[in-house]
Structures are given as structure tokens and as C-alpha cells.
Specification:
Blueprint (H helix, E strand, L loop, with lengths): L1 H20 L1 H34 L6 E5 L5 H13 L3 E7 L1 H12 L16 E6 L4 H12 L4 E6 L1 H43 L1 H9 L4 H44 L11 H23 L3
Antiparallel strand pairs: 1-3, 1-4, 2-3
């Protein structure tokens, strides 16, 4: 066991010395792999933040029940009673026309919306959150509510939620596809890089063979080089993403504030970062193994 640990420690030390002796070449190799990682990982981070912003903006579908102008408190109570009896209703809340006008004035930043008007044109509204988010289920609930007394119009925003879910699913598929394609590209880059090292050290390997070096002994430093190169590329990509988020976060916060929203950009979690490190090191190791498999 002691000899095995010594052999692996020696191989790792040799790998680090190679990085130290040729820092520019090592940095360029790491950078090329890191750039390949940035596309899928950056897409994953961007998609995660977009989903979070959509949730903060209230992406859950709602059904708006607009009441007639002459609807009184008794009419509203009757509609609320019917909503409580509906099995497809998760929750609901009443938004009076005066509150709606104030919210509209706050969002638009204008206080003279009533100029030239004798009365508030906005209707009283009941905002209903359905239990089922599918469009057919919401349309059934909306069709039922349309027949209720003093309900003049019913608006379903499930179409927007469906589009958002489709876009999110498409984004997940694109990021996954990029990850697979660029993972193969990383594998090829690592394989070629190690292959060139093997070619430049052919004579050294031949001498090692003369002194009785085994195939495992010859391959071990190259395998460590591939794994370390992959892990270093992952760390560089992680650092670039974190730095980019720090730079653009004030601009995103200002953009969200213009729409009355708040939130912070979220980067890779510790678990995601460790998974990236493991994946990149494994791809580098596999590429190195393919390069030295015949040695």
C-alpha cells in the first residue's frame, strides 16, 4: 500500500512540475478547455436565473374574473362562495378598482391617469389561482365562471405560463445538448494534448522501458496530467462565471427595479461546482487514457 501511494504521489508531483516548467502552454491548454465549458455552464446558470426571475414575477397562472360595474358586496360574496365550492380553485383574492388604479399608477410612474375621466374605469377583480396549471383545466374553470352573475369577463393567462414552461424545457434541452457536444470536444482536446506529450517523450519512455518500467508506471503521469488539466479548466470556468455575475448584477438589478421586481443573480452552488470539477477532471482523465491506451 505504501509503495502504491508513493507511486501515485510521484506521478502527481511530476505532473505539477510539468505545469510549472511550461506555464504558458499549460495555461493555454487549460483556457481552451475552460472556454468550451463556459457555454453549457453559462447557459445553465442563465437559465436558472431566468426561471427564478419568472417565479418572482408571478409566473404561476391566474384567472382574472372582472366584475360588473354595478356589482355590490352581496354579489361579490356570492361569487367568492362559488369559488370556495370549486374543486379546481387553489386560492383567490379580491382586488378593488381603487387598489388596482393605485397599483397601475405606481407601476407606470404616473399620477394623472384620472385626468379627463369622471370615474375610475377599472373593474373590481377576483384573481383566482387554480390547482391545475394545464390550459384545458383552466379553460374549464373559466367557462364555468363566465356563466356566474355579475361576472362580465374572464381572462386566462395560462397560455403565457405554457409558453414559459416550453421555453424552459427547450432551454434545458439546448444546455444538455451543448454539454454533450462540448464534452466530446473536451475529450478530443485532452486526447490530442496528451498525445503530443507522448510523442515528445518517446525516447524517455523507451529508456524507462529498458529499466523495467511497467505500462501502468508509464501511463500514470499522463493520466494525472489530463485529470489536473480538466480540473484546472473547471476552476477557471467557475471563476469566470462568478466574476461575470458580479459585473452584470448591478445592471440586472436596475432592470428588474424598472419593472417593480427584486432579486439577485445566483451562480453555481457548491454542489454544482464540485460536480463541474468532477466531470471536467473525469473527461480529462478519459482523454488521457485514450491517448496512452496503446503505450
Amino acid at each position: 500500500m505504501k509503495a502504491w501511494l508513493h507511486a501515485h504521489g510521484e506521478a502527481l508531483a511530476l505532473t505539477l512540475r510539468q505545469f510549472w516548467r511550461r506555464p504558458v502552454a499549460a495555461f493555454l491548454g487549460v483556457t481552451v478547455i475552460a472556454v468550451g465549458l463556459l457555454f453549457p455552464v453559462g447557459g445553465y446558470v442563465a437559465l436558472s436565473n431566468l426561471k427564478g426571475m419568472a417565479g418572482a414575477a408571478g409566473a404561476d397562472p391566474q384567472i382574472s374574473l372582472f366584475l360588473a360595474a354595478d356589482a355590490g358586496a352581496a354579489d361579490r360574496m356570492e361569487i367568492e362562495r362559488r369559488l370556495r365550492l370549486e374543486s379546481g380553485v387553489k386560492s383567490f383574492r379580491f382586488v378593488g378598482k381603487d387598489a388596482a388604479l393605485k397599483e397601475l399608477q405606481t407601476r407606470t410612474g404616473t399620477g394623472d391617469l384620472m385626468a379627463g375621466l369622471t370615474s375610475n374605469p377599472l373593474p373590481d377583480t377576483l384573481l383566482v389561482t387554480p390547482k391545475e396549471t394545464s390550459l384545458p383545466a383552466q379553460e374549464r374553470l373559466a367557462a364555468s365562471a363566465k356563466s356566474w352573475p355579475k361576472v362580465t369577463e374572464v381572462d386566462v393567462d395560462a397560455a403565457w405560463s405554457d409558453r414559459l414552461r416550453i421555453l424552459a424545457a427547450t432551454g434545458d434541452l439546448v444546455v444538455l445538448s451543448l454539454g454533450v457536444v462540448l464534452g466530446l470536444a473536451m475529450l478530443a482536446i485532452s486526447c490530442n494534448t496528451i498525445g503530443l506529450q507522448v510523442l515528445t517523450r518517446t525516447e524517455e519512455i523507451a529508456v524507462m522501458r529498458l529499466f523495467g518500467a511497467t505500462s501502468a508506471y508509464v501511463r500514470r503521469p499522463f493520466l494525472y496530467f489530463g485529470a489536473v488539466q480538466g480540473a484546472a479548466a473547471a476552476l477557471l470556468a467557475w471563476a469566470v462565471i462568478c466574476g461575470s455575475l458580479v459585473l452584470i448584477e448591478p445592471r440586472v438589478a436596475a432592470l428588474l427595479g424598472a419593472y417593480g421586481l427584486a432579486g439577485r443573480l445566483v451562480g453555481l452552488s457548491i454542489a454544482d461546482g464540485l460536480a463541474l470539477l468532477g466531470f471536467s477532471a473525469l473527461v480529462g482523465l478519459l482523454g488521457a487514457w485514450l491517448a496512452v491506451a496503446e503505450r
